[in-house]
Structure prediction request, 303 residues.
Amino acid sequence: MTDDSKSPLKKWRVADKKLWLKEQLIKRSYINDVVSRLKTLKSDLLVVKYGALSYNIEKYPLFIVKSKNWSKSKPTILITGGVHGYETSGVHGALGFLETIGNFKDSFNFAVVPCVSPWGYETINRWNPNTLDPNRCFYQDSPAEESAALMDVVANLQGDVFAHFDLHETTDTDNTVFRPALAARDGIEQDNWNIPDGFYTVGDSENPVPAFQKAIITSVKKVTHIAPPDSSGRLIGELMTQEGVINYPVKKYCLCTGFSNSKYSTTTEVYPDSLNSTPEECVLAQIAAISGGLNYLMENTLT
Prediction:
């Protein structure tokens, strides 16, 4: 977009947001890529429609996959993918885990939402059609319907969430597309950062659970490389607390892992644009992250 009204120093108006939306194109199919795979899951998993996005209720139904034999005696694991729809391996990592869940289902209840933002998935977008970032909108009376719908369905689960895995990516387009758009939308200059080449996790600075994060990193290292720190010992501007781990105040920023109030939480991040990995490796890294975290919980928290 070249309109001078969208200068990073001049906040977007309603007309600017409408123009941005008009320029977004459908590039892939949520129904074909995601919903069709949900229909093939094993019978011990229950696929439940929990809503639909008002942008197109037929194209964008929302689904949660739950353990059919839910038990109050088992801890509940929440897995979310596609909060940012353009972060592909998060969506397919959640689906891949469901397809290979194995004996984990004997120890835990699972609530898995593979694609929180299906419009974002189809248009390969961080935002929703209203130029809102769902991963900054997890709070009461959220204006992002993707976030609000997820919070509602999780609130109605039986029992508290014990652990939450939120599956993400850090892409080159974070710097080339999305941060410039954020600067233009808000009229505030945004600093770019070096995109980490590899996998890392984001823990909660108020509850970092470092041994849990370490177990995830150890598991992922068997699949793909871990992101090294930049020259200042940071990833995306944050100091590393251990190999491949940084922490954020997730509740302060209204991030997805903050709303679930889980005892163990992690946000996974992979780099799909790396010359040292493939899209398939990124999906496998997401599955390895979940498996590594679950194995840690089985060994250290279950009696």
Residues 1-8 have pLDDT under 50 and may be disordered. Residues 115 and 183 are 26 Å apart (CA to CA). The radius of gyration is 19 Å.
